[in-house]
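Notes from the 1:1 (GR / supervisor)

We went over the backlog. Supervisor wanted to see one worked example end to end before approving the batch request, so GR pasted a single chain during the call. The sequence is below; no edits were made to it. Supervisor asked that the structure be written out right there so they could see what the output format looks like.
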Amino acid sequence: MQVRKFEATTMRDAISAVKKELGPNAVILSTKELPATENGVPKLYEVTAAASVSSKSGAEAKIRFSDALPSSQAEHELSARLSTLAETVASARQVRLIEGAVHDVKNLLLDLLRDKRPDANAHPHLFAIETTLNAAGVDRAAIAELTRHLSCLPAPQEISKISGENVEAYYRDLATRWMMKRLKIAPKWSNVPGMTNVHVILGTPGAGKSTLVSKIATAVSRKDRHKVAILSWDPDKLGSAEQTRIYSKILGVDHFVITRAEELKPAILKMRGIDLLLVDTAGRNPVDTASLVDLEIIKNQGLSLEFHLTLSATEKPALQDRAIRHFSTIGISSVAFTKLDEIPAWADIFNASSKWSLPVSWLSFSQTPSDTPERASRESIIGQIFKTEI
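Structure output shown during the call:
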């Protein structure tokens, strides 16, 4: 049996290649979706097929089959086999939904264990750390896990005898390191020479996406010396991109506007010399699943895209979780927090990152687009949490 693999930009083209090379009686063994790579290779579809050829050549097999079976019937058989495969193979969207459910189960189990804390009398310094983190707003499940970890370490009396260190400072240092390991930080956005790197900024209404986009454009163009452009995409609000256009002109960056998902790829292909394209999207309701349809369209256009979620630090944690759960079906590369100057502590940043395993990319403070945002770091976030006064 002759087994071969065929790759094409669409499943239809891959099937056509199978029929052309192996004949319409070819057996589809498997199909696979190959994601786009960072070096510009678009998403491909791979079909593994086999043709039963014994003593006769492939051409002879094609003639014999065409004599015995009409082409329409062969296409019907291939379609039936593909339909069977589609029913048994999980899609990428389904896998992401399962991952989100696993996160929810994990958080539920941690919530059930949160009250099993070490004895405050046996470890008074652990109790002090727990009180500090509670005051800062750190998730109670995470605090419970941390205190259980610290309670397994040598007792305070043993620490003093062995090293003479300050016991409270010792536990505080270990707690800081534990939290840093669970806080994910996004790497600096890479720039692949010779291609336009596209970053799509998502979020709910009022999260501060447009302001953040202007700030990132300023930081990247001035500090990293990259050619940056902003593309406003809002199909609902007429003239909503006008403010962004004005800021773009002030900042000296190119500005483009589209109203439909299908316009994104042609717009990018027309760009010349743009290193980084920031796509400012419309605010999407986290309870409306239909709001993600156009995002799925641009994701399937064969472009190399990264999606970043904007969260307002002033939102309640439950609303932040709802937004993360809603947009996670698209695939989130990182999360950025805005309006940090309006809250006393940054515990929600740690909570979201550790709970959902999401890297944090940008920290934004005021609503002035010209202000430079801060690239997230473990030291700044964890340090700010422990500065909270009791």
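Supervisor's comment: The first helix runs from residue 11 to 22.
Batch request approved.
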